[in-house]
Amino acid sequence: MRFVYMSNSLLVMSVPFGNKLLDDNMIKGDEIMDSIQANITKMVDLEMSNFNKYQAKYYLETSITPFISFSLLLFSVLIFVLAYLRINNDLYKLKRSNEKLLITTESIKHAEYIGEFFTSIWNIKTNRIIYSDNLFNLLGCAPNSFEPTIENYLKFVHPDDKHIVTLGNENILNNHKTYPRYYRIIRQDGQERYFKAIGKFIKDDSGNITHIGVVSDVTQQHLSKLILKERNRELQQSNKELAYFNQVASHDLQEPLRKVQTLISIILERGVFRLV
Q1: Distance of alpha carbon 120 from its chain centroid, rounded?
Q2: Do 153 and 138 touch, CB atoms closer than 8 A?
Q3: Which residues pair with 213 in a beta bridge?
Q4: Distance from C-alpha of 256 to C-alpha of 254, rounded to nearest angstrom
Q5: Does the domain made of 106-217 have the CATH classification 3.30.450.20?
Q6: Is residue 188 within 8 Å of 141, Cβ to Cβ?
Q7: How far apart are CA 9 and CA 15, in angstroms?
Q8: CA proximity to 176, closest of 150, 148, 202
């Protein structure tokens, strides 16, 4: 800008009496340059001020960053430790639960074996039934030797008792009714056994109905009942015979007793003996 004013002033120098214009242009050029210099100084000061602010911010951030990083590291370690303790605690509880479940399962298996019974879980909605493992033992079969379904189970039921099992299953599935049932089964080795089936319905929160069944081998109880019944019959027969014997003995002894009483009366009347 200063050179522009200077060129204008030099051009004016060819004109007469142009010294004053030259001086005015020089003065204006100085003022403009001073203004430009002042603005440049302000810009430089502003840039320096911003630079100082950014530098201070940078120093602050660089000084805080290690602390923040260390804090985040400590927080992460704390979270990791807490998560580890929580997971370890959950694993411990899960292990204890699994141990209890295993003990319960084994106890049920042994109880079924000792008590000679098996259980069934029948989902009425899906018509799916699950039998416990002791089913195979009571039927005299090897474990998992056949698929445990109702149809396969009916193959072991005595032909004369199949209707008992079938009608009972229809009542459970269609009418949601259950009652004790007694029927015979023929084991794989041909041995005939007596079974008793009882059950109960349970309903979950969703309204699904499940039938829990317990089927017991009651052969010994049945045979004991037959033996007891036979002994009762024999005892009743003995009682009848004893009553008849008492009746006959009582009738046969009446005449000798009358004769003895008559003889005693005659003796007393004749005074052979005197009663004191």
Answers
A1: 17
A2: no
A3: 120, 199
A4: 6
A5: yes
A6: yes
A7: 10
A8: 202
Q: Which two tokens stand for residue 190?
A: 């041909």
pLDDT tens, residue by residue, 28-45: 777 787 788 888 888 888
Q: Which residues contact 32 (CB under 8 A, 6 or more apart)?
A: 1, 2, 5
Q: Write out pLDDT tens, residues 169-179.
A: 999 988 889 99
- Cβ–Cβ under 8 Å, residues 75 and 67: no
The pLDDT assigned to 272 comes to 52
- In the chain, which residue ranges form alpha helices assigned H by DSSP? 2-12, 19-115, 134-138, 150-154, 162-170, 219-270
**CA distances for 168 relative to 130, 173, 261, 271, angstroms:** 17, 9, 72, 87
- How far, in Å, are 138, 142, 145, 193, 259 from residue 189 at the CA level? 11, 12, 14, 11, 72
Exposed/middle/buried for 231, CB within 10 Å: 0-12, 13-18, 19+? exposed
Nearest to 211 by CA among 135, 117, 112, 124: 124
Residue 4: pLDDT over 50 = yes
DSSP 8-class letter at 160: G
Domain range summary for the chain, segments of one domain joined by +: 2-61, 106-217
